[in-house]
Write a structure and sequence with these properties.
Layout lengths: L7 E9 L2 E8 L4 E6 L2 E7 L9 H12 L8 E5 L5 H9 L4 E5 L3 H10 L8 E4 L3 H6 L6 E6 L14 H10 E13 L4 H13 L2 E6 L1 H4 L5 E8 L5 H10 L5 E3 L1 H8 L11
Length: 271
């Protein structure tokens, strides 16, 4: 999900899956926006998949660039697919990476594959399951990185934020692997505090990136939370934050605790 400004020149809207789906051309330069129920979900540049137009996606891309040496293949799981912007980015920057996308909306995936086709031999495999089910099916130590960028009605589904699911993500990651979550929130960050509390029970280190105006409480925004059972790539992210076209703030673990601490983990209720 993003709040980008889309200048649509052509497109087609259909009712697909659970809502209204539009794939809209932006600017006539083979750039496209995937929109569901009026909300922009993905920006895709078919000519240059390394271009990440939405600021929060660029921040997730910065994390992916920092988790391993440049060009090194990784094994990554994406919870949420939409236009598959980040899988395309990984395929372009880390060729031969093994990628699994967990996207339950089969109609959305079919439209994206038809109208915004993936590169041949991309290494991207899409499974039509939700994130909780898909993660539970993976073996221990399967992934180097798990990225969650999944929204329903503008919110991350609560079952993806529960302590039990976060523990399952920890099981699926290799030692030192990273978990990356895109979370929409605003001051006083009640949801982020809940998620941070859950992550600190599972992982040994955590950092958060956000636009300065969001952290100051001036407007809602996207927080990118990164956690690991080893060390998060803090120094590399701080360098990227300073040089970014849209500079952002990186909070280390102490600042995360000071700014987003005090919450209680979200616990799965009785079934």
């Amino acid at each position: 999900m993003s709040h980008g400004d889309t200048r649509s020149v052509e497109g087609r809207a259909d009712v697909e899956g659970d809502g209204m789906l539009e794939i809209l051309e932006e600017g006539g330069a083979d750039c496209w926006v995937v929109r569901v129920d009026g909300r922009d979900q993905s920006h895709v540049d078919l000519r240059d998949p390394t271009r990440l137009a939405f600021d929060y996606v660029r921040r997730i891309g910065d994390v992916l660039d920092a988790v391993a040496p440049a060009g090194e293949a990784i094994r990554i799981v994406h919870v949420g697919g939409a236009g598959m912007t980040l899988p395309r980015y990984v395929a372009a920057t880390r060729a031969t990476s093994a990628q699994v996308v967990l996207e339950p909306d089969e109609a959305l995936t079919a439209r994206v594959r038809q109208e915004l086709p993936l590169a041949r031999r991309s290494g991207i495999k899409v499974r039509p399951v939700d994130g909780v089910t898909g993660i539970a099916a993976l073996r221990d130590g399967y992934a180097d990185v798990v990225v969650v960028d999944a929204f329903v009605d503008g919110r991350v589904p609560h079952d993806l934020l529960e302590r039990e699911h976060l523990a399952d993500v920890g099981r699926v990651l290799v030692p030192g692997g990273c978990y990356v979550l895109n979370l929409a929130d605003q001051a006083p960050f009640a949801l982020a505090r809940v998620v941070v509390a859950g992550l600190l029970e599972i992982f040994t280190s955590i950092m958060v990136s956000a636009e300065p105006a969001t952290l100051r409480g001036r407007r809602p925004g996207n927080l990118v939370l990164t956690a690991a059972r080893g060390e998060v790539p803090l120094d590399a992210l701080r360098r990227r934050a300073r040089s970014s076209a849209a500079p952002y703030t990186v909070l280390d673990q102490r600042l995360v605790s000071d700014t987003l601490g005090g919450g209680r983990p979200l616990v799965r209720g009785p079934s």
